[in-house]
Design brief:
The protein is mainly alpha-helical. Helix content is 61%, strand content 2%. It has a domain of 139 residues: Four Helix Bundle (Hemerythrin (Met), subunit A) (Up-down Bundle).
Length: 225
């Protein structure tokens, strides 16, 4: 309960800050380069954060959770390490790169919203098995939310390009991969049908044939979360 309350408070705070940044973007639009892209990115980000808060409040109780401290520390680090982007030295990419970065951030956030909508009450930050979601984006890859977040993160790194932001991106990718492994371990231990699902659906790189099971089943934040 303490962890759930802390997560709700953290993401609610981030949503409030995002709402303030949207208001500032509109008020100072004449002083912001490519402000339309910035506004679109921040609005989609606010929608995503609001969904995270709501789904954390109403989510299902877990059927199983990973034991030990490592999965919890990895989940927390993977979720919040990108906040260091705001304090790292940044470069000055050209206009073309900044437009490309903004498009990546908007597209990645919209895809994340799509994934979270399908997760619904199975959403979680920690490695936990709630229900096994295999519809929508989860019929294409087992970890679509991480794939979508990678698109958003790559856009943020390009927008403020520096060697330090690139290294942080590599660290973030390593943490997310470890989260996938932790989540798959707990899902396999909880849902007997997960092995069949995993044999037909790639982890992160999609194929041309989406998964079509003979019967509906039920995950946590990705079938891998």
């Amino acid at each position: 309960m303490a962890g759930k309350g802390l997560m709700i408070a953290t993401f609610l705070y981030l949503a409030i800050m995002q709402a303030g940044s949207i208001a500032a973007t509109v008020q100072l639009r004449d002083q912001i380069d490519l402000w339309q892209f910035v506004l679109a990115s921040r609005v989609s980000g606010l929608i995503f954060l609001a969904l995270v808060v709501f789904l954390t409040v109403v989510r299902h109780a877990p059927k199983n959770v990973s034991s030990g401290i490592e999965p919890r520390l990895t989940a927390i680090a993977g979720t919040f390490c990108l906040m260091f982007l705001v304090v790292l030295p940044t470069g000055t990419p050209g206009t073309g790169l900044r437009v490309f970065a903004a498009c990546l951030m908007v597209a990645g956030t919209v895809l994340s919203i799509w994934c979270v909508i399908y997760l619904g009450r199975s959403f979680s930050i920690m490695a936990a098995a709630r229900q096994l979601v295999i519809q929508g984006p989860y019929a294409i890859v087992r970890h679509p939310l991480y794939a979508a977040e990678a698109v958003t993160t790559l856009g943020a790194v390009i927008a403020g390009w520096s060697i330090w932001s690139a290294l942080l991106f590599v660290l973030w990718c390593a943490l997310q991969y470890r989260r996938m492994l932790n989540e798959e371990q707990i899902l396999r231990a909880t849902f007997h049908e997960y092995d069949d699902y995993a044999r037909h659906v790639p982890m992160i790189i999609p194929t041309l044939t989406p998964y079509r099971p003979g019967m509906a089943v039920s995950t946590s934040t990705s079938p891998a979360e």
